[in-house]
Amino acid sequence: MGSKLLLLTTFIACMFALSFKSDKKKKIVFFGDSITQAAVNKGGYIDVLQNMLQQKGVDQQFELNGAGISGNKVYDLYLRMEADVLDKKPDVVVIWIGVNDVWHKSSSGTGTDFDKFGKFYDAVVKKIQKQGAKVIIVTPAAIGEKNDFSNTQDGDLNSYSAWMRKYAAMNQLGLVDLRKIFHEYSVANNPNNDAKGILTTDGVHLNEKGNALVAEEMWKAISQ
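and the corresponding structure tokens:
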């Protein structure tokens, strides 16, 4: 009789522990630049994603947090990650950076050289992983939406994105390849080869369709 009571007590304790665990929301932090800063506003990709979670009936399973600052490059993320990310004790960190690292090289001379980009990126990822959070990396989507690779920064964006794909594979990280996804979308939906107005308002920042597409891709990544 004593052994049966012990087994019953153990079973109840396990069920209680599982119940408590399932009630805990998975905390997601989206870490990036102005695209992510705007994402928490109405119609932004984080806002759209939150609405998607509600429609799917899983909004109580996730807590979405935006940590984007306009103009940020990868070394800015490294400098502010303690207060803006790690102190929040996230379960998952989605890193979307790279546009300004490329764009600002020509626009203001303050971008990030290719070799330095990789070193800073690795340092950011390693520090997040050391705290126990899962990392999902996102390739920079676009600086101009022409689909024939004639946008001024296409060469650098392709190089940085190729490095990120390889880095994600080598380190078994989640990957949202927006560079590839945006290009394929433009090929299919931009017959006039316009530089903006397809998924962005200005070639970089997301319009309504862009926010919807990014939210869907983010959902695919965090739901795995």
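(Above: one complete record from the training split.) Residues 16-22 have pLDDT under 50 and may be disordered.
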